[in-house]
Structure formats: C-alpha cells, structure tokens
Write a structure and sequence with these properties.
With about 350 residues, the chain is mainly α. The chain is built from 12 helices and 2 strands.
Length: about 350
C-alpha cells in the first residue's frame, strides 16, 4: 500500500523507483517488523500483565517449569501485528499470494487465540479440546487448498497442483483435486509441529526464524526467472512478492526473540505458534517447496514425531519411550538451594 503510493511519485523523485524492487521492499519490511516488535514489546507485555494473561504450567511437568507460571503469554499477538502491518505497508496487495498467506496466518492464529483464551479464563493448561482445535485448523487449511485450486483453474493458471520432488527432475505428479487434502495435511502438521516445539525459552522462535529466512530466499528464487531456471525450480513470477511476507516473518521473529530469550518476559502462546506454523506451511506450498519442509524445519518434525511416539507408547503400553527429567529441591542454605534431578518413565 505505502510502497505503491511512494512509487507513484517516482517521476518527480527518481530515487523512489527502488520501491519497485522486491529486494528493497523485503529489506524495509523486515526492518519495520523488527522495529515494531521491539517498540511494541514493552507495551504488549504490560497490557498482558494488566489483564492477568499468565502462563498456566502443568502440575505433572518438570519442577523447573513451575517458576514460569504467571509469565505473560499470548505474545503471538505481538508477532502477528509485527507481520501484518509491514506486509500491508510494503507488499503488493493486488497479489493473490499475499492475501492467501496473510489470511491463512490469521486463521491459524484465531484458532490459537481461542485456545489461549480458554486456558486463561479457566486458569488451566487445558484449552480447546484437541478435536475442536483440529477441526478449526483443518477448516482453515481446507480454505487454503480450495484457493489454490481456484488459482490453478484460472486462465492463465496462476498455480500448479503438481508436486516437485527435490533431486527428481522428471517426477512431477499432478494431484489435481487431491491437492486439497494434501495441502490440509501439510498445513495442519506444520502448524502443530511449531506448536509442540514451543516449550523452552526462545526455542521455537529462534528455530522458526532460521526456517523463515530459508523460505524467504526460496520465495525470491522461485519468482526470479534466471535463478529458478539455474536451480531447476518452478518459476512463478507472482510468488516473488511472498519474499516480502517471509521477510516480515524473519524480522518479527528476531524482535520477539529479544523478549522470549531466557529468562522469557513473554511467551508466544498458541496464537503465535499455530499462526507461525501455518504461515511457514502456506509459504512452502505457494512456492511449491512443501516437500522441503521436513529438511528446513527438521527440529519441528523431530519434536512432532517424538510427541507422537511418546503418546502412542503411553496409551498402548503405559510406558514412555523418552524419559522426563523431574527436579526437586532437597536442601536450602545461604549459599543457595540444592536440586536433585531424576528421570521418570
């Protein structure tokens, strides 16, 4: 929006031509997102404390986590504001890819917001029932999948339902309408994988920043004819605009990391983790690099698989595969407290 207005003045002020370049707008959007996250952070944390929006810690978890109880949560609202505002300012709002990415992120964030709100209102770590959370996520993912089919049926086509397998140049199967359930699975899994990784100060947001930076580069390459041809990637010129959106994800993540690093002043909550996972999955699908997600987001995949294995093992055998550390304070002295840790299965 703002970039379009400034570019209109390029005849009078020639330097404003730079706003026609995706690289320049991506840089400006990233800096804007980082600045907003840093500037709005203290205000957001104060407001969350005023509304008593504190983290609820599970009683059966590690004792070291109980000290985090009461820390402001739902900091994902800060991330979303730092992503949406620069995107609306510096991206080309006539580009359908931008709106799909923004609305998908907002949709997953809305599901996470409801989950966080219920946790705070009930003063419990239980929010939405798992089935209702999944229903909400699959509904948002289905809308994304349908939007992609509409773009694929557009004349001329603005999207392809073919799968691009890395290192296999000739194997590009066309899923057609089956691309909708495929996109749904990718988006819901990615969203929940980021959510499950959000357990330690700075872990999810730092890992996400690296993944977002990778997809920022891939979005630019996909929209660049020369680079895409050289690397044998699918070339869709409109996807270049997603570089701006992905850049805001990186900037907002780095800004939020300042407030979320140990000891965390605020947690992102499900409103942040579900939204960020949805954003990453949406960008990956739009630029036809969805099959690279397990590599780019390897930490998220491992976290999700470990949870699946742990839960399945406990339900089937009553035993955990991975042990959980539990610490207790055994003595106290002027020199400090002594802590004894053991693993439980």
């Amino acid at each position: 929006m703002l970039s379009h207005l400034l570019f209109q003045l390029h005849d009078q002020i020639s330097v404003l031509r730079v706003f026609s370049y995706v690289t320049f707008r991506t840089a400006v959007a990233s800096v804007t997102a980082f600045a907003l996250s840093m500037l709005l952070g203290p205000w957001m944390i104060r407001r969350l404390r005023d509304f008593h929006v504190g983290q609820i810690v599970r009683q059966d978890g590690p004792a070291t986590h109980k000290a985090k109880g009461g820390t402001p949560t739902m900091g994902g609202l800060l991330i979303l504001a730092s992503v949406f505002i620069p995107t609306l300012l510096w991206a080309d709002l006539t580009n359908p890819y931008i709106w799909i990415a923004v609305l998908a992120t907002a949709g997953f964030g809305a599901v996470g917001f409801v989950d966080d709100y219920l946790k705070v209102a009930r003063r419990s770590h239980h929010g939405l029932f798992a089935r209702y959370k999944l229903i909400g996520q699959f509904a948002v993912a289905a809308l994304v999948g349908i939007s992609l089919i509409v773009l694929a049926k557009h004349q001329p086509p603005l999207y392809s339902t073919r799968l691009i397998f890395p290192f296999f140049k000739s194997w590009i199967p066309d899923l057609g309408w089956y691309y909708i359930p495929f996109a749904m699975v990718v988006l819901v899994f990615t969203s929940n994988a980021v959510n499950l990784t959000d357990g330690l100060d700075g872990l999810a947001i730092s890992t996400f920043a690296v993944s977002a930076a990778t997809y920022t580069a891939l979005a630019y390459i996909t929209g660049h004819a020369v680079f895409a041809g050289y690397l044998n990637l699918v070339h869709y010129p409109p996807t270049a605009e997603l570089t701006v959106f992905s850049g805001t994800l990186v900037g907002a993540s780095l800004g939020f990391l300042w407030w979320n690093c140990h000891p965390a002043d605020v947690f992102m909550g499900d409103v942040g983790s579900l939204a960020l996972g949805g954003a990453l999955g949406t960008v990956a699908i739009l630029i036809k690099q969805e099959l690279l997600l397990p590599v780019v987001g390897g930490v998220f995949v491992l976290e999700a698989l470990s949870v699946i294995i742990q839960v399945a093992s406990f339900k089937l055998t009553g035993k955990r595969v991975f042990r959980m550390a539990r610490c207790t304070i055994t003595s106290s002295s002027p020199a400090g407290k002594s802590r004894k840790c053991s693993s439980v299965s």
